Amino acid sequence: MRRAWTRLLAMVVASVIATTLVSLGAVVGAQPKVTIVHWQHFHEGRAAALKALIPAFQGENPGITIVTDLPPYEQYFDKLLAALAAGTGPDVFQVPMGMAEQLINGGYLAPVPGSVATTAEIERRYLRWTTARFKKGGKYYGLPTDVQHLVLYINNDLAREAGLDPANPPKTWDDLIAQARKATKRDAQGNIVQAGLDTRYKWAVYTALLYQFVEGPVIDAAAKRATYDSPQGIAAWKVVEQLLRGPNAVDSPRFMPGQRKFELKRAVFYINHPVARSVIARIGPDIKYTIAPVPAIKGKRPVAPGHHWAYVVNARSKNQEAAWRWVKYLASERAVRTWMRVAGDLPSLVELLPTEPDPVVRESVKLVRPVDYVGVCDPIRNDLFEAIALTTRPVEDLVREAVQKENTCVQQALR
Questions:
Q1: 46 and 146 Cβ atoms separated by less than 8 Å
Q2: pLDDT confidence of 2, banded at 50, 70, 90?
Q3: Under a CB-based contact definition with an 8 Å cutoff, are residues 234 and 413 in contact?
Q4: Alpha carbon distance 290, 269 (integer Å)
């Protein structure tokens, strides 16, 4: 009888121990579920790349779920700044280099932990101009993404139809104006039906000009003012006037407003970033085009204005470790290769520069002059661009008014 009780007791004890071990194993093996809210503005190519990266990351990090919000570019900054001010912003978000000082000084960004990347690693691996503005007090506050400069796209068939040779692209702004005028088509009433130069991406056109004509800073952050009302700046805006005013204009905001003229084969030349390749492939896959350097000022060295964004972590995020793990992945070699292949981005990593397939895009990196825009002031310059096109007011007056507005915008961003 005693043996039976002993065996029964042993069985009970063994069962309890086994159950306990299983329970402990479940506790040890379980990973807390974390949701990372990720914001960036919508762009076709980059949205497709992000869509490919998320499941790959989640597969390697089963305890982390990425939830994205990709508002239109026109709505993004108002939404982001309002959310950050209210303390309800996303864990991870993308911001342009011009907002770096504003967000770092405002205490909105968390510094990059050493466990993610040391200062030395960041400065060794990434192109210096893609990280410089996100450094303060020896710390970095983001990792670069959406690295871009400007190039000139040429529709080969339309160029040849106009008697131009895509293999001999315009070298100077005078060349571009002359060739674009030759390629512009009008109806019997004088309305443009084919643009010589698609100028819908206003930022690209005036930025290409400003950073070639203005030798010093375009935005003087130390003085908190814009300088493009100088004689050099006025000269740049006068080129915009040549492009958009009078009977020889090569484009107009009234021609196919809001539509992609180049991708729809209604424009011969187009200034944009390398990322535009992904959009052309989607909308105009049969377009045969040439990529050329942005025209230069006659007698001067070519300049390719450079711009980038960064992935950052909200200083108020309650999921800092998971958020930085996601940012580290987005800026990793694997991810950068995806950004390049799917979106058409330039690489942020020095080691991947030789893998850029287009020789003009690759070599133009050597010509980069980083833009020095501050804050969210682009709409002021965009409005100036459109006012030059649609009014007859003197360019000098329009520029001076715009500079006054931009000075206020810059001062608010840097206060």
A1: yes
A2: very low
A3: no
A4: 10
Tell me the HSE value of 300 on the side-chain side, using a 13 A CA sphere: 18
Question: Per residue in 198-235, pLDDT tens?
Answer: 999 999 999 999 999 999 999 999 999 999 999 999 99
* ∠ CA 57-63-67, rounded to 5°: 60
Give the global pTM: 0.90
List Cβ neighbours of 138 (8 Å cut-off, separation of 6 or more).
119
Shortest CA distance to 103 belongs to which of 146, 147, 142, 75? 142
- What length does the chain have? 415
Residue found by looking up tokens 């871009």 in the block: 148
CA angle 234, 203, 328 (to 5 degrees): 135
The arithmetic mean of pLDDT across residues 363-392, rounded, is 97
Contact (Cβ atoms closer than 8 angstroms) between residue 138 and residue 120: no
Collect all residues with Cβ–Cβ distance below 8 Å to 19 and sequence separation of at least 6. none
Q: Structure tokens of 102? A: 């504003």
Residue 261 backbone phi and psi in degrees, to 5: -60, -45
Supply the mean pLDDT for the chain.
93
